[in-house]
Design brief:
alpha/beta, globular
């Protein structure tokens, strides 16, 4: 038996609870891991709210929160290639196992070895933020010297996009609240405080002719406001809002495979995708960790250290 943090029905924070569960048995194409570190993401509370059906693997309640983790392989299911018991790994819990737990199962196809020299804490931040940054920028395909706006730059994904964009030679502008300014500017971002100034006007002052590309992490009205700043509407890439097509933009094309995870890990080793980890919580403090992300107060990446 091991402790886990999850929910017994869909809803808000009030449905969350700690509970004990047996180590889950890895099914075909899965690996059982001892969780060392779990990443915390907005997707976690959306899953709890029932807004992303299909990511629970069809498992019954109670369900465990969390979509990304780093740890050590304890057992292999059938038809698993390229991984062995004892490997240090990181990846996605795409079959409903959750990651806010002492042990869990990851989809083997969406799990990679942690390379020597990379910590489990850093590796646990890469499945969501790291690979999303790579995917969004690859999809845009902007050349060095181009200008990119990261709308919502202060969170884990936004800072990853900003750092990777800067490493590719792009000029990076970013929007966020005042509390996010310091971290964003440290990543090389020309920062626009949406709480203190008109975003469109402020960006136009910096780039009168508009920007070459936009990565949007906010959605809704904010997405529609900044989309008008792009020279080419198709160069607006949204990470969370599928309605981006209504303004001529595109939704990010995600690649969750082992190869893309390994690529993100290499970039992390090189310091390009060095995550800004602003809070490390024990599993017992998982409610506070998720609340920080859910309330939009996380300036950077929040993780839960389980082991």
């Amino acid at each position: 038996m091991g402790q886990a943090w999850g929910f017994s029905r869909h809803g808000g924070p009030e449905v969350q609870e700690f509970f004990d569960r047996p180590d889950p048995a890895p099914g075909a194409g899965e690996v059982l891991i001892r969780v060392d570190v779990a990443g915390v993401n907005p997707l976690d509370h959306l899953l709890r709210a029932g807004l992303v059906p299909g990511l629970d693997g069809g498992r019954p309640f109670p369900l465990v929160l969390g979509m990304e983790a780093a740890g050590t392989v304890l057992a292999l299911g059938e038809n698993v290639d390229g991984l062995e018991v004892g490997d240090a790994v990181f990846g996605f819990a795409l079959t409903g196992g959750g990651t806010y737990a002492e042990t869990t199962v990851l989809s083997a196809a969406n799990t990679a070895r942690i390379p020597a020299g990379l910590s489990a804490t850093v590796a646990a931040t890469l499945p969501v933020a790291g690979t999303t940054a790579v995917d969004a920028l690859d999809q845009l395909g902007l050349a060095a010297g181009a200008t990119i706006l990261v709308n919502g730059v202060g969170g884990g994904v936004g800072l990853a996009v900003a750092r990777l964009a800067a490493a590719r030679g792009l000029r990076v502008l970013g929007t966020g609240s005042a509390a996010k300014r310091e971290q964003a500017e440290a990543a090389g971002v020309q920062f626009v405080d949406y709480t203190a100034e008109d975003v469109a006007a402020a960006v136009r002052e910096l780039v009168p002719d508009g920007v070459d590309g936009i990565v949007d992490l906010v959605g809704g009205t904010s997405l529609r406001t900044v989309a008008r700043l792009a020279r080419e509407p198709r160069n607006v890439i949204a990470v969370g809002d599928q309605s981006v097509s209504e303004v001529g933009g595109r939704f990010v094309e995600r690649r969750l495979d082992r190869e893309n995870l390994a690529r993100s890990a290499r970039l992390a080793l090189e310091g390009v995708l060095a995550p800004v980890i602003t809070a490390v919580h024990p599993l017992s403090d998982a409610p506070a960790a998720l609340a920080t992300v859910e309330n939009g107060h996380a300036a950077g990446k929040v993780v839960i250290k389980v082991a």
